[in-house]
Amino acid sequence: MAGNTSSAASKVSSSLVKLQSLHGMFAIYKKKGPTSADVLNALKEALLKEAGVETPNPRKRKKQWLKMGHGGTLDSAASGVLVVGVGDGTKMLSSMLTGSKKYVAVGELGKATDTLDATGSVVLEKGFEHITRLDVEEKLKSFTGDIMQVPPLFSALKQDGQRLSVLLKKGHKVEAKPARPVTVHSLTLQEFTPPLFTLDIECGGGFYVRSLVDELGKALSSCAHVKELVRTKQGPFTLQEHVLHEHQWTLENILQALRPTPHAQNQQNPTPKEEPGPE
């Protein structure tokens, strides 16, 4: 009996050490609904459970079994590529925040919401029958290149140390952030079936698709909001080739998908120190 217990503890310890020795970045699929933080915590929980950590609590600060972060928040209503850094890979995530991203966005003309997407309440309705495909394509030209953009009020940006979206939900008054420079590398209209239209977007860091669609609606003498949003690429990671879906969140799959840090690549056959098993 004692031998079996010792063997199980050794297996848990070995799996945990292997998990904690990971250093690099990989991409997972964020489904529509949960926040990016929720998805990251679900990933941590799945990996720790596989490593044998009993009743893991990824939010608990007292004991961090696994160092992990994500490279750029996706709205809860959005889906697609979420880049994850593990170990020393978390230090590389800043490059994901500033790097190139691609999105496919479905906008809806004629309705504006307080959140600028479908999760919010409708605050304005205007006609859109006058808008043609050519009108949209012509207006998109002014949103391409180096432009100034006002971030949405409902966002992860902070005021007094708290996210604007959280403050708004608590009923606090928040001030709009000033317009800031952003870069749109390419912007094309894929489909136009009023009131819906589909945009293919490649942009740099700090860009908000919701703000683009809102401003586009105004430029067309109407209004609009984002109905659906999918991030199809972030840095070198694409939706088709690189993301791990929830059923693939295992140590083996992450080892195969991991892009190691330079430090990890230079380590040749490291022998990790044996650590005590989880409490």
Automatic annotation (TrEMBL):
Keywords: Acetylation, Cytoplasm, Isomerase, mRNA processing, Nucleus, tRNA processing. GO terms for biological process: mRNA processing; mRNA pseudouridine synthesis; tRNA modification. Its EC number is 5.4.99.25. It comes from the Eukaryota. Pfam families: TruB_C_2 (PF16198), TruB_N (PF01509). It is an enzyme of class 5 (isomerase). GO terms for molecular function: RNA binding; tRNA pseudouridine(55) synthase activity. The keyword Amino-acid biosynthesis does not apply. One of its GO terms (cellular component) is nucleus. It is found in: Cytoplasm, Cytosol; Nucleus. Residues 61-209 form the Pseudouridine synthase II N-terminal domain. Its main location: cytoplasm. Residues 210-257 form the tRNA pseudouridylate synthase B C-terminal domain. HAMAP family: TruB_bact. Belongs to the pseudouridine synthase TruB family. Pseudouridine synthase that catalyzes pseudouridylation of mRNAs and tRNAs. Mediates pseudouridylation of mRNAs with the consensus sequence 5'-GUUCNANNC-3', harboring a stem-loop structure. Constitutes the major pseudouridine synthase acting on mRNAs. Also catalyzes pseudouridylation of some tRNAs, including synthesis of pseudouridine(55) from uracil-55, in the psi GC loop of a subset of tRNAs. Promotes the processing of pri-let-7 microRNAs (pri-miRNAs) independently of its RNA pseudouridylate synthase activity. This is Pseudouridylate synthase TRUB1.
